[in-house]
Amino acid sequence: MIAFQFVTAFLMIFMGLYAFLYKRNLIKLILALNLVDAGIHLLLISLGYRLENGLLPTAPIYTGYETLKGTPMVGPIPQALVLTSIVIGVCVLSLAMALTVNAYQQYETLDVSKLRRLRG
Amino acid sequence: MNVLPWVIITPLFGAFSMPVISLLGGKFRGHWAVIVSGLTLGIAAKVFYTIWKSNEILVYTLGDTNPIGNGVKFPIRIIWEVDLFGALLALTVTFVSFLAILYSLEYMKHDTGLDKYYALTLVLELGMIGIVITGDIFNFYVFLEIMSIASYALVAFRNDTWEGIEAGVKYMFVGSLASSFILLGIALLYGQYGTLTMAYLAMKIAENPTLISKVALAFLVGGLLFKSGAVPVHMWLSDAHPAAPSSISAMLSGLVIKAGGVYAIARIIFGIFNPGLHSYLKAFDMPALNLNTLGWIIIFFACLTLVIGNAMAVVQNDMKRLFAFSSVGQIGYILLGFGIGIVAYGDKIGEIALTGAVYHIVNHAVIKGLLFFIAGAVIHQVGTKNLNELSGLARRMPFTTLSFIIGAAAIIGLPPLNGFASKWLIYESSAMYNPILAVIAVIGTVFSLAAYTRVLFTFLGVESEKVKMVKEPGNAMIVPMLVLVIIILVMGILSWQISDKIMLPTAKMLEQLNGEYIMALLKFIGGG
Amino acid sequence: MFGYWDALYFIYAFIIGLLISYLLMKWAEKASVGTRKEGDGSKIYISGEDQDKVIPQFEHLQGYFTGRHVMWGFIRGINKMFLTFRREHTGLLTDYVSYLLITVAIVLGVMVIWG
Fold it and tell me: Which tens digits make up the pLDDT trace of B101-127?
C-alpha cells in the first residue's frame, strides 16, 4: 500500500505541471514552479518518516529532549536536504519575481503568450 | 597541503568580497575578478596535473579525513571525487572563464552594476567547478542550481532590453522545471537506496536494480538533456545565449551546457549506472538494468540534435543566434560520442567514441569561446549583430576576421585544426559501429559548413554603410581572442599527441573498466 | 593509434592550397580589374563578386552581399524543411514546457519498457 503522503506529493507535482501547461499568467507560473518544488519536498520529507512498534517518531537531532527508549527517530538527512532545497527554491522564487517585474515593464503584460518576439 | 578545496573557496571568496572591493573604486572590481579567476585557474591546473601524473582518483571528504561514519559501514559524509575527466573539465572551465572575465574588462566597460556582474560570473564559474568535482549526488544538485541561477540572472543582466528579459523568463521557468525533475530523480534514488554518495549508490543499484531506479534515471537524463540543450529542448538555448552579454555567451555556450549537461549525463551513466557493471550482472542471470537502451535513446537525441541544430543555424540572420544554434549542433556530436560509448562499452570502438566526445567537449569550449568573443567584438565596435548589415568587415577589422576564419574552420572540422581531430574520432567510431550514424554526422557537418560560409562571405563582402568607420577593439578584447586562436592552432598541430596523452586516459578513467570510481570509495570502507 | 595521418601533412596541403589560391587570385585580379587600379574605373575582386554584372534571376545579388544572400540556392532547395523547423520554434513558454515533458516521457517510457 502506498502511503497517502506519497500520493499527495505526486498530486502536487502533477498540479504544478498542469498549471505550467495551461496557465498563462507569469505569477501563476511562479506558483506552479513552487508547487512542483513543494511536492518534491513533501516526497523527500516523508521518506524519512518511520513508524516503529506503533510509536510516533521524534525529532532527529534535538538536545534537551529525552526520547523514550525504543522510540524511532525520523531520518535526519531528508530534513537537511529539504532545508537546502527550500533555500534554493527561495532564490529561484525571488529571481522569478524580479524577472516578472522586468517583463511587465518591457511588455506591459503578464501574459506569457505575449512574450514571443524571439522565434524562428 | 591538499589544494582541492581551494578551487571552490577562491571564487566563492572572490564573489562575496566583490561589494567590499567595489567600495575602493570602479576599476578595482574588474581587476579583482581577473586576479581571482587567474588564481582559480592556477589551482585547477595544479589539481589536473596531480591527477594526470598519478592517474588515480582523488577523494576528498568535507570536514573529515574519512567518508565513513563512526560505527557504521557506509559513507555518510559529503565527498568530492575527482577523476581525470572532472579535472580536465575544471581546467577548461577555469581557463575559458578567466579569458571571459579578462574580455569583459573592456566589453562591459559601458555597463553599470558591474560589481553584481563580476560576482555572478564568479558564482557561475564556482558552480561549474563544483559540478565537475563533486562525488555526492545532492551536492551535485546544489552546484547545478548555483550554476543555473547565476546563468538565469546573467542572461537577463541587461534588463533594459526586451531580448534579455524575454530569454531570461523562458530560460528561468523551464530551466527550473528541469531542475525539479533532476531533484525528483535524486529523491527517488535516495528513497530507494538510502544513500547519496555516487560511488556507494552505484553499488547499491547493482545489488538491487528496481523499477524505481529506472524511473529515477529517466528523470535525471530527461532533465539533464534539457540542461545540455538537446533537440527538441534546445529552444531556450537559442533564445538565451544570444541575449546574454557576449562574454557570458562564451561561458554559457562553451561551458555551462557542457559542465551542467553533457558532463553530468556522462558522470551519472558511467559513475552511478555503470554499463559494464550491469552487463556483468546480466551475464550471471542476475537482475540488471539494460543500459544499451539508454545508449540508443541518447544516440537518437544526438542524431536529432546534430541535424536540426546545425540546419537551423543556416537560416539565421542574427550572428549570435547562428552561433548558438551551432552550439546545439555540436552538443549533438558530443552526445553521439557518449551514446556510442555506452552501447559499445568495453570495446575499442566505445573507447574511441568516448575519447572523441571528451576531446570535443574541450575543443568546442575553446572554439565557441573564440566565436562568441568575435561576435562580441563586432557588436562592441559596429553596434549590430544582424548579418545583413555587417557586410565587408574584413578590411576594417582584419584581426577579428582572421580569427573568425580560424574559429569557423575549426568548428566545421577542417584539418589541421583541433576540431578535426575530435570530430574525426567521432566519425570513425560511429562508422565502425553503424555506418548510418556516420552518414547522419556528416550531414550535420554539411549544414554547419553552410552556416559558417554565410558569415564568412558576409565578412569578406563589399563594405556596407555601417562598417565604414569601424576599427579594431582594444587590447583587453584582442588578447583573449589571440590566446584562443593560438590554443586552437597548437591543439590542432599536436592533436594526436594530446589525444594519446590526455584524452585517452581521461576516456579510460571515465569508462572505468575495473570500477575504479567505486574502488576509490571502497578503499575507505575496507580500511575503516 | 587509429588513422594514418599526421597533422603535418595537412599543413603541407594547406600551404600548397594557399599558394594555389594566391595564384588564382592574382590571375583573377588581372582578368577582372578595369582600366585603373583605384577609383571609378576599377572593379573589386573579392569573394568572386563582380559588381557590374547582373545575372538574370539573381538580381537580388546586386550591390553588396548581405547575410541573406549567401547559400541562397541551398536554403531554397530544402526550404520546406527549414519552414517546418522555424514554425516549431514558436517562442511560447508553454510549448517549451511541453517539449520538456515529451522528452522526459520518451526517456521514461523507453526505460520502463525495455530498460
Answer: 999 999 988 888 888 999 999 999 999
Chain B residues with CB-CB distance to A95 below 8 A: 149, 152-153, 172
Cell of A46: 516523508
Q: What is the CATH number of the domain that holds A77?
A: 1.10.287.3510
Name the 3-class secondary structure at A56: coil
| Residue from A99, A109, A117 to probe the interface with B (highest B Cβ count within 10 Å) | A99
- Cα→Cα distances B18→B11, B12, B135, B216, C104, Å: 10, 10, 29, 39, 40
Verify whether the Cβ–Cβ distance A78 to B177 is below 8 Å: no
Closest CA to B60 of B145, B17, B115, B1: B1
Whether the CB of A114 is below 8 Å from some CB of chain C: the reply is no
Find chain A residues with C-beta within 8 A of B315's C-beta.
Answer: 120
In a domain, A62, yes or no: yes
Give the residues of chain C that fall short of pLDDT 50. 1, 3-4, 45-48
Chain A residues near residue B173 by CB distance under 8 angstroms: 20, 29, 33, 96
Q: Residue C60's CB: how many other CB atoms inside 10 A?
A: 10
Residue A14 maps to a domain = yes
Interval B375-429: pLDDT, tens: 999 999 888 888 878 877 888 888 999 999 999 999 998 877 888 888 888 988 8
Domains identified in chain A, total number:
1
Mean pLDDT by 10 residues, chain B (528 residues): 86 91 84 93 94 89 81 83 92 94 90 89 94 92 94 91 91 94 93 89 89 92 93 90 92 92 92 88 86 92 92 88 93 94 89 92 94 92 84 85 92 84 88 89 89 84 77 88 93 86 89 84 71
- Could you say which of C8, C51, C112 has the minimum Cβ distance to residue B215? C112
Instruction: List chain C domain ranges.
Output: 7-89
In a domain, A87, yes or no: yes
pLDDT in tens, B247-291: 999 999 999 999 989 999 999 999 898 888 888 888 888 888 888
| C-alpha separations of C27 from B175, C14, C34, C45, C51 in Å | 56, 20, 14, 11, 18
Q: Where are the alpha helices (DSSP H) in B344-397?
A: 348-382
- H helices within B108-161, ranges in order? 114-133, 137-155
Asked if residue A120 is part of any domain, the answer here is no
What pTM, to 2 d.p., does this model score? 0.90
Question: In this complex, do B214 and C115 lie within 8 Å of one another by their Cβ atoms?
Answer: yes
Decide if C91 and A116 are in contact by the 8 Å CB cutoff: yes
* List of chain C residues whose C-beta atoms are within 8 Å of the C-beta of residue B390: 67
CB-closest option in C3, C96, C112 to B236: C96
Q: CA nearest A19 in C: which residue?
A: C94
